[in-house]
Amino acid sequence: MTVSASLSGTTETLVKSVSLFNLGTLINDQSSLTMRRGMGTRVEVPVTGAFIEMTDGEHILFDTGLLPHNCERDDGADPCLSMKRFSEMIARYERQDDIRARLADLGHTPEHVKIVINSHFHWDHSGGNLLFPHARFLVQGSEYRFAYQPDSFAARPYERAYFDCDIDYELLRGDQVVKPGVAVLTTPGHTPGHQSLMVRLPSGPLMFMTGDAVFCPANLEPDSPPGNAHTTEQAIASIARLRLLCEFFGGELVICHDPDFWKKWQPAPHRYI
Known about the structure:
- By secondary structure, this protein is an alpha/beta fold.
- The chain contains nine helices and twelve strands.
- Its cofactor is Zn(2+).
C-alpha cells in the first residue's frame, strides 16, 4: 500500500471551493452495501457528485449522475430508452436533480466544466457524460476496457449509451495529480478500474471523494465489506488505503452513497472552502 511522493509532498492547491451535488436517490438492498447483512431490507441511497471550482477557471466535475432529463445525442440515438431498465431502482429523480440544474445553483453551466473525472462507468455515475463533449475526461484505462467488455455477472450496471458518446477519454494508469490540489487515487474492487478523488481545500484540509469504493461507514470495519464488489479482496484493500490516507494526512472521507450523506454534508449551493 504505497503513496506516491507526487501525491503526498505538496500542500499547494488551485482549488477555490468544493460543492456537493444532490442528484437523486436510488433504492438498494442493504446487502449490496454490507455483504450478507440486511438481506431483504430496502434502503434509499443518494446519488452524488462534486464540483471543484478552480482559481484558474478550469473547473472539475467528479461524476455526472443519472441520465439528464430530455437528453439527446447528435447521432440520433435515444439513451433515454435504456433508462427504463433502471427505473425500478430510482426512488427520486426530479428536474432539480439534473446535473445542469445543480450547476445552475452555483451560477455555472456545463460549458464551465473543463475536466470531468468519472469514478467509474456505472449508469448512475456516467449518465450526464454526454452534456460535456467539450471537456477533458479522465478515466482509468482498466475501467475503460472493462466497461466495453465486462464480465457477464458485472455487466448490468454498465449502460454503453451513457459513456460511449463521442468522447475522447484520456486513459490513466494509476494515481495521478490532475492539477495542484486535485489527484485521482486508484481504488479498484467495486469495478476493476474504479478511482477516487483527493482534493485539498484552500483552507488546508483534504476531502476524499470515495465514489463507490466505500458505500457506507460500516464498510470501514473489516467485517462489513461492500456486498456488490467485482473483486471483494481488492475492494477491502482500497477501503484500507483510503482510510490510511485520510488518517495520515488528515481530512474527511466523503462516502458518496452513504444513506445518511445529507445529515453530515451540505448540498450545493453551499461551498466548502
